[in-house]
């Protein structure tokens, strides 16, 4: 994996500071340049003059430089960019114009106003970015070291998840890391509580059990076919789980102490947004380690 340019949005929150730490580590490892981007939202003072706006920018620049002082001290090139507009739109525009290879940004939480912040900014960036996005939760465990050594990649066999697999394999091979591919079957009931196989009529139970074995074996075979022969046990693990995808992904990440989750994110239409809300968004909001998302 080569990575020459990283865009790191800054809003002076704790979540933003965690993202800065992670961006610094990634940039140092890949010898990348960082664009530190702060977006000025609409001023509450509609009578503010251009001179006052310029003074506001001048006051923010040293604050941003201070936040990236650690990166600068390591010889990492940091460009400071302050622009007005809607945060998600400006982040996407700057990443595209700079041909950035990665956006690194923090996530703010799971409820209340923080959920709205995630919904209005992070979700849009995840859905529309043309480069990978690395989201860093405030409670991330693994912001102090690279390379990542325990990767978990969720696969639903969509184009975006296949792109995520290719990226995860590249990361794992480059770092001699372990890689777990996980596929989740929403089987066969989630809510309300399902009857057990033993409670079903014998013939139905047998057919259902056989169908389940078929699905699991087929998924396992497909997952194994996605990785090169060089990625074999013990560096490669295959997991087939049953349940809600986001719940099983998070459980597997915790169980394996993953230091990076890799996900594919689908496109831009309302259906894809609903899917994002049910899986990728849940993982990004609840993960305790960084999450790398790819969009095909």
Question: How would you characterize the overall build of this protein?
Answer:
- This protein is an alpha/beta fold and 296 residues long.
- The protein folds into 2 domains: 1-140, HUPs (Rossmann fold, 3-Layer(aba) Sandwich), CATH 3.40.50; 147-296, HUPs (Rossmann fold), CATH 3.40.50.620.
- Helix content is 46%, strand content 21%.
- The chain has 10 helices and 10 strands.
- It has helices spanning 14-30, 50-67, 69-73, 87-97, 112-128, 159-175, 202-225, 245-255, 270-278, 280-286; strands at 5-9, 33-40, 78-84, 102-107, 133-137, 150-154, 178-185, 236-242, 260-265, 291-295.
- Helix 7 (202-225) links the parallel strand 7 and strand 8 (236-242).
- Helix 4 packs parallel to helix 5 (112-128).
- The longest helix is centred in the C-terminal third of the chain and has 24 residues, at 202-225.
- 36% of the residues are buried.
- The model is unreliable at 110-118 and 270-276 (pLDDT under 50).
CATH superfamily of the largest domain: HUPs
- On the 0 to 100 scale, the average pLDDT is 82
Physical arrangement of strands within the biggest beta sheet: 3-2-1-4-5-10-9-6-7-8
Question: What is the strand content?
Answer: 15-25%
CATH class of the largest domain: Alpha Beta
Biggest pleated sheet: 10 strands, mixed
Q: Rg from C-alpha positions?
A: 21 Å
- What overall geometry do the principal axes of the alpha carbons give? elongated
Structural class by sheet pairing and helices? alpha/beta
The total domain count is 2
Distance between the termini: 17 Å
């Amino acid at each position: 994996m080569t990575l020459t340019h990283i865009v790191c949005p800054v809003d002076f929150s704790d979540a933003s500071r965690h993202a800065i730490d992670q961006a610094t580590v990634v940039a140092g490892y890949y010898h990348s340049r960082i664009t530190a981007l702060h977006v000025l939202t609409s001023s509450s003072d509609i009578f503010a003059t251009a001179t006052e706006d310029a003074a506001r920018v001048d006051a923010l620049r040293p604050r941003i430089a201070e936040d990236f002082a650690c990166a600068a001290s390591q010889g990492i090139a940091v460009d400071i960019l302050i622009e007005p507009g809607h945060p998600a739109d400006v982040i996407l525009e700057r990443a595209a114009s700079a041909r950035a290879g990665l956006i690194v940004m923090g996530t703010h939480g799971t409820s209340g106003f923080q959920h709205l912040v995630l919904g209005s900014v992070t979700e849009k960036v995840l859905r529309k970015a043309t480069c990978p996005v690395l989201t860093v939760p405030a409670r991330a465990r693994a912001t102090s070291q690279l390379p990542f050594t325990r990767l978990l990649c969720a696969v639903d066999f969509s184009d975006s998840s296949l792109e995520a697999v290719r990226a995860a394999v590249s990361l794992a091979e480059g770092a001699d890391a372990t890689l777990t591919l996980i596929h989740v079957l929403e089987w066969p009931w989630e809510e309300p509580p399902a009857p057990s196989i033993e409670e079903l009529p014998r013939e139905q139970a047998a057919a259902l059990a056989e169908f389940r074995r078929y699905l699991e074996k087929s998924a396992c075979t497909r997952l194994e076919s996605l990785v090169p022969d060089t990625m074999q046990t013990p560096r490669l693990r295959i997991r087939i789980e049953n349940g809600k995808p986001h719940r099983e992904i998070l459980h597997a990440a915790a169980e394996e102490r993953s230091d990076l989750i890799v996900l594919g994110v689908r496109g831009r239409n309302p259906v894809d947004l609903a899917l994002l809300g049910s899986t990728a968004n849940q993982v990004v909001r609840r993960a305790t380690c960084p999450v790398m998302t790819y969009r095909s």
